[in-house]
């Protein structure tokens, strides 16, 4: 015979079920939530700057928060626009130069691989004419399937482009309103927490805030230093695309190991296309090897600090796990979610070590 539930237990079960249903709804609305989550993460990073300007006094004039928000958002958009102005013109001027190196690269690949392919019974000439002939044969044999795939890709790609345009336009608007009402939003979230847990929840939120603030500030400094280092070293080594590749490598360092690997691949491709010998590859190996040593032994310990506790393996796992579960929204949430989980795990471990189950 089941035990009757008390009124408090019924209320607890009701609210837990309601919050679970709300969480499932948010998961189903993942693509719609992408601009909101992106704006919230950017607002979290920019809010300290808004608060500092908001608290300024210019004589008898108090700076309104709306004006502070406008100034910070404009500065943020100007920084992004400046980055685009740096990278895009260089790519526009340098990519044709790299394209001119493709025939020489194909000739080297043909001299290296064609004898081995002939030994395997494969007769393909790896030059522009040979590749065009191979592609033409494949398209002639399966033209209907390729055309259907192209149409499907165009439909999906067009929808994706429209979605990205909508997101890019919507994020600044959401960012403005979130920064304007940031403290009100935080107060409403705190007001929704049951009073019996408010003290513990606020304490954990402050730990997460400290963890993320230290991590983000330190990581931004690491990205800036490495972007300058890679751009300068690649330029000294004679790379035509030193500036965009160096800046992208520095920015991608925010994703531990994966970002460094992608930057290394971009630099190796530029080396193979631009240089006729192995000097470019050797220069890339030396520059990126030294950069990894500088980042791992000097920059990250000093600027980010091992005391923060966000292990690179934990960040990689969070990126992959949340990306698998929630798509692009999960990637946006990976860093704050990993910080929250690490703080929760620390409290859970402390509770476990002090429990009678562990000490008995």
TrEMBL record:
Protein's organism: Pseudoduganella namucuonensis
One Pfam family hit: AI-2E_transport
GO BP, one annotated term: transmembrane transport
Q: Where in the cell is it found?
A: Membrane
Q: Its family?
A: Belongs to the autoinducer-2 exporter (AI-2E) (TC 2.A.86) family.
InterPro entries, per the entry: AI-2E-like (IPR002549)
Q: Membrane-spanning regions, if any?
A: 12-45, 66-88, 161-180, 220-239, 245-273, 280-300, 312-345
Please tell me whether the keyword Hydrolase is annotated for this protein. Answer: no
Name of the protein in its database record: Predicted PurR-regulated permease PerM
Which classification does the entry list for the species?
A: Bacteria, Pseudomonadati, Pseudomonadota, Betaproteobacteria, Burkholderiales
How does the UniProt record describe the way this protein sits in the membrane? Answer: Multi-pass membrane protein
